[in-house]
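Subject: sequence -> structure tokens, single chain

Hey, anyone have a minute? Need the predicted structure for the following. Not urgent.
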Amino acid sequence: MHSRKSKMVALACSLALASPFALADQADKNDAKALQDLAQANLAEVQAGKLASQKAQNPEVKKFARHMVEDHGKQLGELKQVAQAKEVTLPAAPKPKHREAMKKLQDLSGDEFDRAYMTQMVKDHGETLTLVQKTAKQAKDEELKAAARKAEPGIRQHLDMAQKLAGLTGAKSQ
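Reply:
Had a minute. Here:
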């Protein structure tokens, strides 16, 4: 009986050493989820930006889209480094809601595409701004908090840009 108990303790210890999140408390799980959510948001912006770089009619929308690919690609790279250090596996694809939005965008063209894309950008950046602000305040991991704080000004700038372009294209800006 004593041997079985010591084997279980040894197994628990080895699992804890193998992955910081394997036997983590709820705070660590929340940090891991925040990392995953932020990565998915960046993936969505990169994919939508690539599509808009090709399909947008308005040159300013195309310019904005290229900017999104570059900035969110950079943010995604930084999140990957944090995730790797924390042994958190990041998703390879955006959330289903973002994939559905991409499908809708793929079927549009011209001014209709520009309006829909900019409406989506306002919505997504508003949600992402809320997510980084929450993560910066509530994350337990200091490196994750720092990454969220670092991302916030850029996302706020993206939201402002998206709202202005939404106004120019006749898209919904709120």
